[in-house]
Design goal:
The complex is a heterodimer of chains A (about 300) and B (about 180).
Chain A: H1 2-23, E1 27-33, H2 38-56, E2 59-65, H3 70-75, E3 81-84, H4 86-96, E4 99-104, E5 112-113, E6 115-120, E7 135-137, H5 144-156, E8 167-169, H6 176-185, E9 191-195, H7 196-204, E10 213-218, E11 222-223, E12 226-229, H8 235-247, E13 253-256, E14 259-262, H9 263-267, E15 272-273, H10 281-289
Parallel strand pairs in A: 1-2, 1-3, 7-8, 7-9
Antiparallel strand pairs in A: 3-12, 4-12, 4-15, 5-11, 6-9, 6-10, 13-14
Helix pairs in contact in A: 2-8, 5-10
Chain B: H1 6-27, H2 35-60, H3 62-69, H4 73-86, H5 91-103, H6 107-120, H7 134-154, H8 159-176
Helix pairs in contact in B: 1-2, 3-4, 4-5, 5-6, 6-7, 6-8, 7-8
The chains are: A alpha/beta (about 300), B mainly alpha (about 180).
């Protein structure tokens, strides 16, 4: 009896860890670009990771990453997937061969967005040429619709932002895009580099009125935030993830910290679409003209 | 004369339309309740309601039209956002949105919004109607087929292109009209 018990115990020691391993799901990380702050970004996007885990059988961990850290951490092979703005997608494609998975839809332009230069209505600034010698507030430097697009608009109008403005500034902290719109509204700056999406959302929420500002110039549209995959991601898994993203609808839910949440509602996304890499060529041209990464030269 | 606000003009317009409708109903020949006169009353009611609605829609979206005419399409789009707070999903708003998005180079979005508007209200196809967009839709279909179809044929697995091309065909089918 004792001998039989000892044998059973011995077998358990050998086989139980094996059972644990069988139940284990592969683990991978998804890097999300930090928008306003780490906590908000996590709460916004963790349900997408959770949804993708449910659909693919992979345990995806949500990691919030600063815009400037993506390239280095992708090169180190830390992330399987990334969700970034479209400029970072271009940079990471050049740097590590990032593969286009899906493009997020949000706002009037759907998968696309644009940048505008705005002035307070009645300020006397009516056209882009009027901004010479004025105080301008940009969004963060790696923001395609809050910096790059407007920088390019100024260059196209023969204005060198480094020399022809009185000065320019970039606000710090959370809600930068809203801050710069308010900065012009309250007269702290003469001109703002406003993402059209923020103008649209603030108008929809009643924070501003459509005719509070004069739109001095607006860029062509270019793709909005983008999901990309590491070049070495298993192609079968790539297809599975892509399908899950394109299938995602307004009623889909995912679990986060014991709660079931609507994925679109928490993430602010309105869908994901299957764009072509060539859809990003307009933005590439903008980056080239503005001497921005990944085409920067000194 | 003092300049009326947009809301003031709308109220005045609705007041005039209602007064006109009441006056017509009161003064219309009674005809002793025959089926013919009743049908006439109904036809007049319908026509008045149609005219009042058309005037209301024009007045409601006049600021959007003015901004577009002034060459400020983005601000027109923002004005539509404002109006959408009170009239969400209004098909007239969707058509205007589609037109502005097309001007701003978003062909796929323009197609989607036109299709959405037509699913809600088919009168945009009525050539004689006050809101006819038949020509615009036809041109959009032609452009959609010329630019999106070859793109889709080169990328037949692309689900987004497939969905947009399907909407182009939907618009084309609506232009063609019904069939038994």
């Amino acid at each position: 009896m004792t001998r039989r018990f000892l044998l059973l115990l011995l077998l358990s020691v050998f086989f139980l860890p094996g059972c644990d391993r069988l139940g284990e799901r592969p683990k991978m990380k998804i890097a999300y670009m930090n928008c306003n702050n780490e906590r908000e970004t996590y709460q916004r996007f963790a349900p997408i990771s959770s949804y993708l885990s449910e659909k693919t059988g992979v345990e995806f961990e949500t990691v919030v990453v600063d815009t400037h850290e993506f390239e280095e951490r992708m090169k180190a092979g830390e992330f399987a997937l990334v969700h970034t703005n479209s400029l970072l997608y271009i940079i990471l494609k050049e740097a590590v061969g990032l593969k286009l998975l899906a493009t997020e839809k949000r706002g009037a332009f759907g998968t696309h967005t644009a940048g505008a230069l705005i002035a307070r209505k009645g300020s006397g600034i009516e056209k882009i040429e009027d901004i010479k010698g004025k105080r301008l507030i940009f969004g963060p430097m790696m923001a395609p619709s809050g910096y790059l697009a407007q920088y390019d608009l100024m260059l196209a109008a023969g204005i060198d932002p480094e020399r022809d403005l009185a000065y320019y500034a970039i606000p710090a902290g959370a809600f930068k895009h809203e801050k710069l719109i308010y900065a012009v509204y309250f007269g702290d700056f003469d001109v703002a580099a406003a993402p059209v999406l923020d103008l649209e959302e603030m108008t929809r929420e009643g924070k501003i009125e459509a005719d509070d500002f004069t739109i001095l110039a607006q860029s062509a549209t270019f793709p909005y935030c983008t999901f990309g995959a590491a070049a070495d991601l298993d192609p079968a898994l790539f297809d599975k993830i892509k399908k899950a993203l394109l299938d995602l609808g307004p009623e889909d839910t995912a679990e986060l910290d014991g709660e079931r949440l609507k994925v679109f509602k928490t993430s602010w996304a309105e869908g994901f679409e299957d764009l072509l890499d060539s859809d990003y060529d307009g933005l590439r041209e903008m980056a080239r003209r503005a001497n921005m990464p990944p085409y920067q030269s000194y | 004369m003092a300049k009326l606000s947009c809301a003031g003009r709308l109220k005045l317009l609705l007041f005039l339309a209602t007064t006109g409708l009441v006056a017509l109903l009161v003064t219309a020949p009674n005809g002793g309740g025959t089926a013919g006169s009743s049908a006439l009353d109904k036809a007049m009611e319908r026509e008045l309601a149609r005219q009042a609605r058309a005037a209301f829609v024009r007045e409601l979206y006049a600021p959007v039209t003015e901004l577009r005419d002034a060459g400020r399409p983005q601000q027109a789009l923002l004005k539509l956002e404002e109006l959408a707070r009170a009239y969400p999903g209004d098909p007239f708003g969707l058509v205007l949105r589609a037109e502005i998005l097309r001007e701003l180079g978003r062909l796929d979005q323009a197609i989607g919004h036109y299709a959405q508007a037509l699913r809600l209200n088919g009168e945009f196809l009525d050539e004689q109607g006050p809101f006819s967009r038949r020509t615009e839709i036809r041109l959009l279909v032609e452009e959609g087929l010329a630019t999106l179809l070859p793109r889709f044929q080169s990328h037949p697995d692309n689900r987004s292109l497939a969905a947009t091309v399907k909407e182009v065909y939907y618009l084309q089918s609506r232009l063609a009209g019904g069939c038994e």
